[in-house]
Structure formats: structure tokens, C-alpha cells
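We emphasize that the prediction below concerns an isolated chain of 219 residues; any contacts that depend on oligomerization or on bound cofactors are therefore not represented. The input was used exactly as deposited, without trimming of termini.
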Amino acid sequence: MTETSEVRLMLVDDQDLVRAGVRRVLESQPGFVVTAETGDADAVAGLLLENPVDVLVLDLNMPGRDGFEVLRDIRAAGLPVRVLVLSLHDEPAYVARAVRDGANGYLLKDTAVQELPAAIRAVMAGGGFYSPRAQQALGEAMRAGTETREKPLERLTTREIEVLRRVSAGQPSKAIAADLAISIRTVETHRANLMRKLELRSVAELTRFAIEQGLLKDS
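Result of the prediction step, given as a C-alpha cell string:
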């Protein structure tokens, strides 16, 4: 990146206020321009194809498909974009999983105002950038070996975990659909995906898995 070149940015976060705040921070910096934003993870790949950017600023937890799936989509498609995760979560498993799925940096939302401009410059220069707490979490994950070993629960999206918890608690599809404001058909699709990803064959096996993972508080 030369001093005169513009850095094109895309913001992905389901909270409008967060996107507005991040946009203000970035556009106050010379050479930064936000060319696209969305709160819909499903729209990211299409937007990147229509409007290529240099850096994607990505939240992890969004309704429906989450940021981890966005990272995997970008990697699978070979899209030439650097990705900075901007998250509330500083747990080792979150940070390690984001890095494993292709993130070039990981920032915590409570320090984003101070760190985001420097983080963008760092990844544009070919490096990485991690908030101090994210660095600590990544170090803990590496010591525990979690950076190279994907756990079964990490294969699932946030929405799939919500469906798994309810299916395992005995809720019928109609009730799950009402709780999550989705269709019954979508619930059934999530359940089929859960069985495929976890290599399980029945609701009973899903329930046992949920208990083993501590997803059922009363079990």
C-alpha cells in the first residue's frame, strides 16, 4: 500500500449502530473508504464479487450463518481480501478457530476505536494484528493444542447450536421454528445438517452429544 492509495473496506455486522460507529472511525482516517456494508452473512460473498475490497471487518456472531462460515467461504473461493475479525469474544477457542479459518487479525470491540486503523495498516502490509487479550487467548489455545484440532462443536454455526439445544431438549419443530422466527422446513434442514456434520443418525444421538457438550443445563 502506498501513501496515496485508498484502502477499500467492507463492514459486516448485524448491528446497525456498530457498523455506523466503525464507519465513523475508519472514514476519519486518511486513505480509508468504506465501499460496502451488510448485516447479512449470506450476502458477503456476492458483495465481494460485485465490489472487491482490500479489507473485510467481520463480526462472528450473526443470525443465520455466522462469521466463521464467511471466513471459510472466502478461503474456499480464493477471494483476495484480508479479514479482520471484530468480536466481543476473547475465549481461546473463538480466537483460535477464527485464525484457523483464515482471519488475518482479531480485535475486541471494546478496544476497536484505538486499534482498528493500525490493524488495517498492518494486514495491508502483509502482517497480522491481534488485540492484547486476543494474543493472550491465542497463546492459551496454542499451549492447549486447540489451534490445530477442531472440536465437533466447532463445525456448527451459531444457529445450528441453537437448534441442537432445542431438539435435544425435546422441543418439536413447530415450537423451535416459533422460538427462532424461522420456518419449520428450515428447522428440519438444520437438523439434517447437524446429523451430517456430526455424523450422527438419530435425535437420540444428537441428544447424547448435546449432553456431552454441556448444552443442556438441566441434564
